[in-house]
Please model this.
Amino acid sequence: MNLDLQSVIDQMDDFSLRGIPYFFLIDYEMLKPVIFSLDEIPEDIWIETPLYATQHPSLDIDHQITLKPNPITLAEYQQGFEKILSGIRYGNSYLTNLTYATELLDFDSSLSDVFSLAKARFKLKYRDEFVVFSPEPFVMIDHDDSISTYPMKGTRRADSIMDGKHLLDDKKEQAEHATIVDLMRNDLSQVARSVKVEDYRYFELIKSEASELFQTSSKITGILTDTYRKKYGSLISTLLPAGSISGAPKGKTVEMIRAAESGPRGYYTGIFGIYDGHQLQSSVLIRYLEKRDGSYYFRSGGGITSQSTCEAEYQELIQKIYVPIH
Model:
């Protein structure tokens, strides 16, 4: 059902307290949240997560997904980049995520095709509006009240194993990752005790038809405080927007994003999740392909710091336009 944010938070709290399984979806601006009990999910919402999957058609796809990006120009990107960099130099932010939509030319597949072919831990096709194949968890809550989050920050093409080493050694990437880990550790401390960084800056390999990427993440864990036990709507709302796709500090950074980007993000970089009656898993809505007015757009971006260069960040935006196949 479509409700205002507070109503969705209250419904999540109520379902969680009563052990009723549910699906939730919250957009970045938190204006169009959605919640359904798992036995009432509409047929045009497809979900695949480690915790739960809907019964949806099994498509026999005999073609590859070909993406022909038509990105904004470097000059257009630079306008937003300079606005962000100015705010950083002024001291309003240490790290800001700048994102844009890239039109896909001659796209001859469907959202259902992409959902079926993409390989990712968290997949969602929402009606005929968008499909997401996200590698990034947001928060996970186990039945023993342990909570974990996995901020993902740092990407590089994986043309050789040395690219992984270069990613780990890159000073800008080190600083960017440390900033987000610190932010997410502080965020988690609002709802949990005994918060610690359990695994710092490990990297994974993500494959697509066009290229391979190294991606770095960290694992942060804690134990829920009594205030947030089984009140998962209140907990989630306290942590939004996700730090890995906004920046630090959040307040001023979100203002900078609004001023620099070309329009609202909508569901892109929001979150979705599943509560199965015992545990909750959620994911950040990145690696996101949307259908708008008959055309298709891929949303992507990256973190800007004082050490960023416009050309490198522009190339990262383009590198992230892919559908993972392994």
The two ends are 34 Å apart (CA to CA). DSSP finds eight helices and 17 strands in the chain.
